[in-house]
Please model this.
Amino acid sequence: MKSENSSELNLVAAGTIFEGKLKTPGSIRIDGKVIGEIVAIQNIAVGQAGDIDGNISAKNITIGGKINGVVMAQEKLVFESKAVVRGDIRAAKLVIDEGAIFDGKCMMSEKTPAPYPPDHKPEQRKPEERP
Model:
């Protein structure tokens, strides 16, 4: 039986394109393309091949690829040397490696809001039926 504190890791692999809103109580790694919002209770890692066109939020976020959207890290946000971020960011702690590109506004505070409440359970949706 799974506990409420999920440590599962989700993956959007290289070559995959996802469109829509993605929520997870665990962590996620993006190596493909995501068009839409990503919300993770734990961590988000965007690999060098990762490309996100939308807003992301999580406890900790590490970016090695490209993001065009708002980035909100409840605790720590890391831009690796190949990161390209175009959009506003909010984090309690920020690390920017040499070579990273950031174009936007930065707001830092110890009280960054959680991605969604700890007791929130992501919606369980059934696949839509097609005629």
